[in-house]
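Fill in residues.
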């Protein structure tokens, strides 16, 4: 096996994607879930309007 100098070891990068951390991934997942839930709500509203199944305001 080839020996690597300590100076070169400090330059080795790998095993992770830089600048992408757990909290960033969690925030992206939360935004996607929020958009999905909003889509379900809008779709449900459109369906209820189309089927004339709306609760009266009075």
């Amino acid at each position: 096996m080839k020996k690597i100098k300590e100076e070169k070891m400090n330059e080795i990068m790998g095993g992770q994607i830089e600048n992408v951390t757990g909290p960033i991934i969690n925030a992206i997942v939360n935004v996607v879930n929020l958009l999905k839930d909003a889509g379900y709500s809008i779709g449900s509203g459109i369906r209820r309007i189309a089927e004339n199944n709306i609760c009266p305001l009075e």
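The helical segments are 6-9, 22-50.
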